Hints:
With 263 residues, the chain is an alpha/beta fold. The chain has 11 helices and 10 strands. Helix 1 (29-43) links the parallel strand 2 and strand 3. Helix 1 (29-43) packs parallel to helix 3, helix 3 runs parallel beside helix 4 and helix 9 runs antiparallel to helix 10.
Amino acid sequence: MPELITYEKHDAIALLTLNRPQKLNALNYATNDLLLALLDDVENDPAVRAVILTGAGERAFSAGADIHEFAESINAGVEVAVREFCTRGQTMTARLEAFPKPVIAAVNGIAFGGGCEITEAVHLAIASDKASFAKPEINIAIPPTFGGTQRLARLAGRKRALELLLTGDTFSPEHACATGVVNKVVPHNELLPAAVELAQRILRHSSLAASRIISAVTRGINTTIEEGLLIEREQFARMAATRDVKEGLSAWIERRTPNYEGH
């Protein structure tokens, strides 16, 4: 059996590739569980400081959930479907959203349903000009269940999100960029190089600081501004006594490139 997700290391970058191209990289339960296990490995590997997530083949990033498997859970009853499908998917996207190292989606093709929800959850995303997006869950009479009703509205605004959620219509990578689902669109053959270049621009800086920024934004975005400012202050306090802050300040004063921990 081929690996459901391949894992390669390129210097300080982990490349995770959803690897069910014959199924348009559909997210069956085993794929979701393996992604969580690989993220644990990445988090615990100090040599890896950023993640790029993409899909195998030329057609799809991920077409979403494995509908045949999901249908079996539905037939087994509501409690089973919630546990096996909804909770599992939400756990996976929440892990990506709160992951302490930058995660960049390189969306190489179809990103429907769960594939779109992964794109919404990760920290940054770049789309191929051949990518396409959709929130098609309404076509099978369910709402999105991996966080798509919540994150899309936060990214795109309520009315633009509801149009996509209630119609199930496919939308272009340019529209995904305009609504904040992806950061930019690039020619298809430039997708992975663009994702690597973005990762490298981040990796110039302190990985500890990047982690604190991710935590502050992820936790603060769903709170009041007052609570968010407390979170921001907490993350600053966690950094203030670190070697990286002292090194960053010294390097700036001495006009040299900083040498951060882990570089």
